[in-house]
Amino acid sequence: KHAAKIRLDDVKGEQSREKDKADRATSEQVLDQRTRMILLQMINRGFVSEVHGAISTGKEANVYGAVAYPDLDGPPVQRAIKVYKTAILSFKDRERYITGEHRFKSGAEKGNSRKMVKLWAEKEFRNLRRIHAAGIKCPEPIQLKLHVLVMELLGDRKGYAYPRLRDAAISSEDAEEVWRSLYIQLLGIMRRMYQVCKLVHADLSEYNILYNDRQLYIIDVSQSVEHDHPRSLEFLRMDIKNTGDFFRREGVDTLSDRAVFDFVTA
Ligand code: ADP
Ligand code: MN
Question: What is the pLDDT of residues 107-163, one digit of tens each?
């Protein structure tokens, strides 16, 4: 630990303010030395200038808030950094997404968890690029290095992330109408993702959708698959059922899952 610190000091030199911020995130016990070096490299190259505390600590990844100054004299920009964990166990049940995914040599990387997390981060980065390019609201991907992905923070200017749809406080007088319009918005997103991006999210639920100001934002697309993946339609049915169930619980008079499937794929 001490050795790591000395090396960091050597690398960082006078930029100690940033270093302290990076150290604070490190103190949450999740950033190994390799990850710290990647973050410092990103700081040195200006993709990130401050790394803040964790927005989310999950089984497979942690997400941190960060700030960057893309223009020297411009305003700060809020970013999110997703750091994939190199834990073999959490990637075991992910195999089914990779197998049959022609963008990745299936099997070759099995058993090498460092390569596996790099693959997942890469997959998320590419999927985000495709989804963002299609005009679907999602974090804009900024930078990728091994298992560390920098993206736009979906949140306010102070760095507070938008809530998940699960936690969205929609309590206005027209809540019923808002829920209905969100449901229709999501149908459009699923269809566009399928038809334009040629992707199925494959883990779509109220937990992987953020909400702000009557807008839905799609996140967490590392496991999303190409529409020609052998199990893509199975995953799509699951996405439709999970989100349909959620909106039904919120009182929306939804279409049948079957009708949604036809709408998305037709
Ligand atoms: P996982 O579910 O695998 O841990 P997610 O990509 O779903 O990873 O991210 C975990 C949580 O971090 C999300 O539920 C969301 O609250 C937050 N989050 C992720 N990406 C962003 C982002 N770009 N902007 C704001 N919050 C984010
Ligand atoms: Mn998630």
Answer: 555 667 888 899 999 999 999 999 999 999 999 999 999 999 999 999 999 999 999
- Chain centroid, CA 73 distance in Å: 29
DSSP state of 155: B
Q: How far apart are the first and last CA of the chain?
A: 56
- Give domain 165-265's CATH architecture: Orthogonal Bundle (1.10)
Report the top-level CATH class of 2-152. Answer: alpha beta
Domain ranges of the chain: 2-152, 165-265
User: 218 CA distance to ligand 2 centroid (A)?
Assistant: 10
Q: Which residues does a 6 A CB cutoff place in the pocket of ligand 1?
A: 55-56, 58, 60-61, 63, 80, 82, 139, 151, 153-155, 161, 164, 208, 219-220
Among all bound ligands, the one having the nearest atom to the CA of 61 is 1
User: The tokens 């949140």 sit on which residue?
Assistant: 155
By annotation, the residues acting in catalysis are 203, 220
In tens, the pLDDT along 187-199 reads: 999 999 999 999 9
